[in-house]
Amino acid sequence: MFLKLNHQKLDVFNTARQFVSECYKMTNILPADEKFGMSTQIRRAAVSVYLNIAEGASRKSETERKRYYEIARGSLIEIDAALDIANDLEYLKNVDTSKLGETMIICFKLLSGLIKSETQN
Questions:
Q1: Which domains, ranges and CATH numbers included, belong to the chain?
Q2: Whole-angstrom Cα distance, residue 83 to residue 66?
Q3: Which of 6, 15, 41, 86 could form a disulfide with 91 if both were Cys (CB 3.0 to 4.6 A apart)?
Q4: What pLDDT does residue 36 have?
């Protein structure tokens, strides 16, 4: 917000920011009894994606950067699994999740590319 750093120029960082917003919007429609369960878990994992990209980009070591990007990608996978459960429980029955899915896929691809590039360096 106040610092102007290189990670803010990364496509994956900006996509992750959109993804966090989409996750928050989606969790607002979950049943109230999921407030301290699935909703909280999805939100925490979404924020983890965003924050780990930022922190990873600030690391000087390729190994460290890769590890933070792997953690961010793992959080995306965690959210996808939680959405499987939400869908099975029919929480998403009348919800348009297309934007959420689109940003998740883009984030996953961009993170995978970053991880691969760190491995090749």
A1: 7-120 (1.20.1440.60)
A2: 26
A3: 86
A4: 87
